[in-house]
Structure formats: C-alpha cells, structure tokens
Specification:
The complex is a heterodimer of chains A (about 325) and B (about 450). Chain A has about 325 residues and is mainly α. Helix content of chain A is about 75%, strand content about 0%. The relative contact order of chain B is 0.12.
Amino acid sequence: MELNILWFILVGVLFTGFFFLEGFDYGVGMLLPFLGRNDVERRVIINTIGPVWDGNEVWMITAGGAMFAAFPHVYATMFSGFYMALFLLLIALIVRGVAFEFRSKDDSPVWRSTWDWLIFFGSAVPALLWGVAVTNLIKGVPINEKMIYVGTFFDLLNPYTIVGGLAFLLVFLFHGALFITLKVEGEMIDRARAFALKAGAAAAVVFLTCVGLTYTNTDLFKSALGGIALWGAVVAFVAGYGLTWVKKYGWGFAMSGLAIALTTIGFFAGLFPRLMVSSLNPAWSLTVYNASSTPYTLKIMTIAALILVPIVLAYQAWTYWVFRKRVTAKNLEY
Amino acid sequence: MDEILLARWQFGITTVYHFLFVPLTLGLSIMVAIMETMYVRTDNELYKRMTKFWGKLFLLNFSMGVVTGIVQEFHFGMNWSEYARFMGDIFGAPLAMEALTAFFLESTFIGLWIFGWDRLSKKLHAACIWIVAFASNLSAFWILAANSFMQNPVGYALNNGRAEMVDFFALITNPYVANQFPHTVLSGVVTAGIFVLAISAYHLIRGTHLEVFRTSFKMGLVWSIIGLFALMGSGHLQTQFIAKNQPMKLAATEALWESADPAPFALAAVIDEKNQTNTFELGVPGALTFLAHDSFKGEVKGIKELQAAAVAKYGPGNYVPDVKALFWSFRVMVIAGMVMMGITLLCALLWYKGKLEAYPIALKAMLFSLPLPYIANSTGWFVTEGGRQPWIVVGLQKVAQAASPNVTAGEIWISLIGFTVVYGVLAIAAGYLAVKFIKQGPVDTKPSIPAATAAKGATLWN
C-alpha cells in the first residue's frame, strides 16, 4: 500500500482512538457537577477516569503530531485557519488538566466547586469544538490555491457545523454516562442510567439531524464506505440506547463506542483522498498527495508507528485492567 | 505592533512559562524515583514519607508542565504555519516520535503511579515512576533534536521549495543536540536539587520534620553538587561548540564587535548597539580566546566581520541579534549558576563539619536561592533562541518569513492576552497549593474525604 494512504488510515485510527477514549472522558467531565451530589460522589466520578484521562488525551496530541509529520500542509492550514477555535480548545484543555489535579488539594467548598465547573466547561468546550471542526473538514472551508485558509472564525459556524458540535457533545455525554455505570456502585448506577437515557434521547435526535445534514451539505455519502459507516453508527447508537434501557451497560457502552468509531471512520472515508475540502475550488483541497511529507519521512514514521502503536495499546490496555474494579467511596486516591 | 512581533511575544511567553515547570519535572522525577527505590529496598517508612511529600510537589509541577506543553505543539501550526510548511517534513517527525515514545508512556504511567499505591506491588509501583522519569527525559531529547535542527540544520535537502529530510539518523545525532541535551537535562538536575535543598532548608530553619528534611537535604546536596559541576562542564563544551558552529551567537553574547586574537572576555560592558561599539568594557585579556579554543592563541570573529560575511552569503539584511539582551542574559545565567554553586558548597562544608543547623544564615541563603535555577533556565534559553535571530532555521528561513499569513494581529492579541491571563491565574493557584504543601510538610495525608456535609471547616489534607 502507498504510504500516503497508510498514513491517512493511521491518522484516522488515531482520531478514532481519541474520540472513543476522550469521548467518555469528556462525557464524565460534563456530568460531574450534575451527577455528583456531594463531595465523595464527585471524587468517585473523577476517579473513574482519574488514572486514564491523561493517557487518553495523548491520542489527540499524537494525532496532531502525526498530522504534522505526515501531512504538514494539513497541519499548517488547519491550525492557522481554525485559530480562534483552537485557542479556545487549548484554554479549555489547560484548565481541565490542572483542575483534575488541583480540585481535591484544598478543602474549601468554593475551591472545589469552582474546579468542578471548570472541569465541566473544559470537557464541554472541546467536545463541541471537535464536532464543529470535523463537520467543517468534510463540508469544506474557504481554502485558496496556496492552501491558505481565507475565512474567519465565524465562517466555521453555520447550522450544519453547530449541529455537528452538539451531536458530538451529546453523544459523548451518553458515552460518558454509560462509562460511569460500569465504574461506580449502588444507586449511582441508576442515576447515571437515567442521565444516559435523557442525554441519549437528545443525542439521538441531534445525531440523526446531523447525519441528515451531512447528506445534504457534503459529498460523504458518495463514498460507499462513508455511507455504510455513518448509517452503521446510527444503528449502533440506537442499539446502545436500547441496551441501556434494559440495563446491559457493558454492551451499551460498547455500542456507543462503536457509534463514535463508525462516525469517525465514516467521516474519514468520505474525505478520502482529501484531508481538508476547499469550498472555493475542489482542486484546491488538501489531499494525501499534495499535502504530504516525502516518501522518506513517511517511511521512517511508518516503521516507528508500526512498532510503537501496538506497544502503546498494550500498556494502555493493561492500565484499564489494573483499574478494572469499580470505584468506591472507600480508599479513594486523589 | 505587527503580527510577527506579537506572535514572537506569544511564543516567548508561553514557552518560558512552560519551561518554568519542565526542568523540575526532568530532575525531580528521577529524585522521587530514587527515594521510592530506597523505600522498596530498605522498607524504611522514612523514604516512603519522602517519596509522598516530594511526589506531591512533583505532581503539582508535572500537571502544569503537561497542560502548558499542549500549547507548544499547536503553536507551530497556529502562529507559524509557513514554518510548518517549510519545515514540516523534518520537524514533524521528532514531534510525532515524542508523542509516540514519550508522552504516551509518561501520561499512562503517571496515572498508574498516582492511583496505584494499593493496586500494584511495591516494586512495580516504583517502576512506574522510573518510567515517568525516563519518558520525561526522552521527550526532552526529541524536542531538543527538533530545536537543534533550527540551530544547526543537518540531514536535509532543499527540494520543492521546502526543507526535506534525507537522513533521519543525522537529525538525531546532530552534534548540536549532543551538546544541548546534556546541558538541558543537567539544568533539570540542578533545578530539582536546589528545589529540594531550599524547601528542606525552610524546615531545618524552623526545626520541623527534621528526619525527613535532613535526609532530603543530604540527598539534595549530593545531587546538586554533581549536577552543578556537570552542568558547568556541559555549558563550557556547548559554548565551544557554538564558537565554531554559531560564531554570530557567540560574538553577540560577548558583545565582541571587532574580530580579535586573542579576544578578551568582558565581565561587564556598556554597549552602544547603534554605533556598534562598547563605550566601556571591563575585560579579562585573552580569556574569551581561551574559553573558545583551550589556548591563549586563536582568533574569535567579531560581529562586524560576521555581519559582512552573512550579507555576502545571504544577501542584504541585518544578521545581528539583540547584543545587549544576549550579553546580559548570558551573564545573569552564569552568575546565577555560580551563586548556586557557592551556597551549595558552603552548606556542604557546614554539613560535613556537623554545624549546618547552627548557621541558620546559610540555610536562609539556601532557601532564598530557590529562584536562581529558574532565572538561569530562562536566561539560558533566551541566549539560545535569541542568539539565532533573525533566523528561525539558521541559514534557511527567517522568523519574518515563518508566520501564518492569514492570522490577524487582533487574533494574536486575543490569544496572547487569553493565555497570559489564564497562565497568571493558574500560577497563583499552583503557588498557593505549593506553599501550603511545603508549609504542611510530610504529614500523613491519608486520602479520606469526609462527606460534603461534614466537609465545611474540616481539613482534608490534615
């Protein structure tokens, strides 16, 4: 296989891993102030992702790094073009990251509740922004013949991309609530389920709207794989909702994760061989060929990725195994 | 202000801020790993208390380093997209390698270390912090390898209007990184050493938690003295390399306008950049030549000659960095290092004679030397990065050509102010927690949270 295509797949894999893993992290973060009725419960909720959120976030960092290494023009065009959106994303991630570390280090209720709300915003803003970003990538943004984004921040916001942002946010909320049902004990499970059912109902509506708008706003469905994956995601999501209804949380979580993965796969399949679509002229789109690094660099990076990604997967999986037990109010670390 | 200047300010502020936390992570991770290893080997609770106390401060610092580091990876595309296009084929690879080899390890195993005290065996738990220490220092290698290309481009060819990688091995064996990496890691060692010494001194002065802080102080002394000597040695080697490799950086750092053989080392100077001369200079004859060549004979090229040579090679333009700022930054760094060395050796001598705690003045000096490594780290990087101006990649691309063409001054202002305000608030919060933890000392912080109803007024961390 051509290395350019392999790297397109690898970047897709990294984003799939990122959205699957950070999806429930963001969801848990957004649920924190609502589901946690007292301090112990809130700490329990944080500790469901405490040992793993940082490792999950590195999936995003690596996706960014891989894009820089394999498709430097995409990195340059997207990061300079989505400037204000990324600025907001960075602020959110900075605040969220320290909030996990800081919030329990002082016992003042004001201190703790401030950081809890910062975790909420630090999770909701990235979830929303990634949805906006992904839908913009496939819809197309004003990119000129020199690969330079010539729009403004507000060009990124339109009904379709805002629905895309909300869809990501609500699906992640559902995914996160299901993750909590797997990681806590007692009646908190039922409350998490109630949340999942509410968020899931809203997510179903918005997600379906998003898929519909994707049909009218983009050419994603011209790709057979893109169409199948996206409809598959809808089916998986509905299945996840049903399974949650009948309290099969493990399978429900697997289905919400599958829905997220298939959505990501669908979007990437719809994009191929493009990485960013130009709304000004299809010929100005960034593709795996005109935006890529040299074959030499791709070869070096391929060797590194093929060796390292399985190792990373192995030790991250081991971490989930170590922390497989449900988090209880007893012996809380923080 | 124009976009370039704003973008430079933003990069400068966020990078210097990020690098306030990085060196301590590099050095303290290893120290905490050693402490925990001693606990595993001896089963002495003292070492566990040390591990927990310093580990708590380490985590505070680590989290600040991690979150401010994310910004760094995004910057190159946000503010410097032309740089990313021109350099991406080379620069992206070490960044991706950093994420794949180091960030994943560090972030995964720090989680295991924080939450794994009761879930992992003692040995496995200690191994986790060793892995974090290894990964942090490995990540320093990758980013410095990338930075070294900007200082001394190797293993590339200019094709298709961009720099393309032709030899990955040359990139990671760049002689520049062979000098820069040890100097950076050792600055981390010293930062951690002085940090441990200063905080231990605080408790020794007050006579609190003596067992823990006597042992910590002893460890800090050994660590800092080895670190300081090695740091100065590596700095010397690096300067000699720069004398050959980046003569303009050396000449500007020394405010040496005219080539000289032998060249003096200026201890202080009144610099007139406009007229390209020093109106006053206090120098040691021949010393610069000796530092650069290990001999009292040999020419050191001056700024004027190097400027003329650069114009001949690259065309018209100003190739002289900010001489005054470089000259004084370098001296501040060296003086900070010497003061650290003096105070540390003095404390070591008093310790050896068993009189340390009888001289609170020495302990106070140690306590107040806490800012010194931070000052030295910042000024040192200023010399490194300021000294390559006007280039972003020496000889290949100028800073002025590297900025994003589509990002407006208004956008940079918003992000510049936004980052600065958020960083300021976080510094206050982190500082508040650090001071609280330090004052508390190694109290047994058994993680038991009272219910929220009972939490009001109750202390959690004791």
